Known about the structure:
The complex is a heterodimer of chains A (about 200) and B (about 375).
Chain A: H1 5-15, H2 22-34, H3 37-53, E1 55-56, E2 63-64, H4 70-73, E3 78-85, H5 88-95, E4 102-106, H6 124-133, E5 138-141, H7 147-160, E6 166-169, H8 185-193, E7 196-197
Parallel strand pairs in A: 3-4, 3-5, 5-6
Antiparallel strand pairs in A: 1-2, 6-7
Helix pairs in contact in A: 1-2
Chain B: E1 2-9, E2 17-20, E3 25-29, H1 36-48, H2 57-60, E4 67-76, E5 79-88, E6 92-96, E7 99-101, H3 104-108, E8 113-116, H4 122-125, H5 128-142, H6 146-166, H7 171-210, E9 217-221, H8 239-259, E10 270-275, E11 279-280, H9 281-284, H10 287-309, E12 314-317, H11 326-338, E13 343-347, E14 361-366, E15 369-373
Parallel strand pairs in B: 3-13, 3-14, 8-12, 12-13
Antiparallel strand pairs in B: 1-2, 1-4, 4-5, 5-6, 6-7, 9-10, 10-11, 14-15
Helix pairs in contact in B: 6-7, 7-8, 7-10
The structure holds zinc ion (ZN).
Amino acid sequence: MRYPPSLALLIEELKRLPGIGQKNAQRLAFYLLKAPTERAEALSRAILEMRSRIGSCARCFNLAEEKLCPICQDPGRQSSYLCVVESPRDLMAIESTGQYRGRYHVLTGVLSPMKGIGPEDLTIGDLVHRVDDEKTEEVIIATNLDVEGEATSSYLVNLLKPKGIRITRLARGIPVGGSLENADQVTLRMALDGRNVV
Amino acid sequence: MRLVRADLEQFRNLVTQTVNLHPHYNLLVGKNGQGKTNFLEAIGFLGTLKSFRAASRAEIIREGSDVCRVSSVIRGRGMARSASFSLTRRGRVQFLDEKKIDSPEEYLTAVRVVSFIPEDVSLVSGPPSRRRKIIDRSVFEVWPEYVRDYRQYLRVLRQRNALLRRKDFMEEELKSWNQSLAECGATLVRKRIMLLAKINPIMEEVNNTLDLERGTHLRYKPSFMKAIDSPGMLDQNSSGLTEAILGKLEEVQDREKEVGHTTVGPHRDNIVFTACGERDMGRYSSQGQKRGAVLSFKLALARVIREARGAWPLVLLDDVASELDSVKRKALGSLIRSMDAQFIISTTAEEPQFLDRQEGYVFRVENGLLERLQ
Lengths: 198, 374
Ligand SMILES: [Zn+2]
């Protein structure tokens, strides 16, 4: 049997979402079909609003609804520490430990020649400017401990070393090849405490 | 590890049957083409998830059937468990204790087999890639976490090659991939050399016992330096090896930009069967000498696995006695007796001369059927 075109279209769109297959897409679509109109409207508004409001922070490239993200706006944060992460999700993971009171810089990715991503595709230039402007004393490199994260880390070390600041790398606890996002809070806290000078 | 029982279904010409095995010695006798090697191949597949004859699934599944299955009961550390696999033309599935195991590595650490077949002689004179492969497999048998090191290295290698092919990159970017390649590469090299350091003294012993060519050993020939002689290079964090690889990468960098791939590193290293006087056996030794070298390597490997993992692997020897004279057969017999492993040995000779029938089970193999002789 064929779905009416508008329903078929919704199912197709839902199937594009990560982790959603044909079966789940049908379930969701029928749920939205039967749910009160307000539910469906609230969902579509939430999606559009999120898309129109959220951009990236002009300073650290974290997610932000204003020019600067809440962390960059927070005067209580120590500007002398700068933690470099791959993505806003990794930033959230470190924030969730409640252990770190410095600021962040989001690279928006890692070096990956196979995907055609080089240093110019990341926010590395902005990072260098920030280190100079904000009188950073320590850069904590918190890229993932997989192959790409390590290569990006060693690129940053080579780049920042001549500036004579302290550079540390998250280490202990996180399994080699592991990702920050999947590390539990205790492990991440230990990795933060036990970071190594590089 | 002991293989207590094997159930065969549709594996090549083998008749569907259950074979109960002796915990130490199992001799397969019979004419060629009756199924002796096929049985060893089935058991080898059970232990490695690969055919030691590099056969495809379609070749292994008996003609006219869709699925072939080998199940087994194994005993190790006082515990019995079952291991099995089934093959269709579309793929392979493996099970431990009736549970489907998705990761081959997980399965492989449960069942350990070392095999020797006559075709292995080509290992000595074949391309370096074949020897790298078997050494890497052996390192994995001894230190299972090696599979992770190995995958990381391959990933770095692919990234660095992708960068070299792009050509329009900054020196600094290449430098960071050099660093990663050198670090991951050093880990691989270090573990391979540590394996050779375990294997070589035992190979020497085996050679002496079997009166094979003196001084036969495995020599590591790195692609990034002349030879790794100083033991200081093999310290815990392999900093010496990392430096050496890094130095060579910088040296060949311009050339690599032209060819567009990485030309030095463990993926280009060689491991050479070497005889007395540093002679490369692949070039200068007779077939018999090469055969002996591979046999002593495999027997040494079994002992290294025993030392590292606390249990003997199952040892499969195909047609091992045919080229040995009676003195060497006797010597092989006493060597086998000195090892507490389980053996399955095939031979065409009725009286193989190196084991007595009372010591284990003798099976006559005919038309794909194994029949135990009393
Ligand atoms: Zn910000």
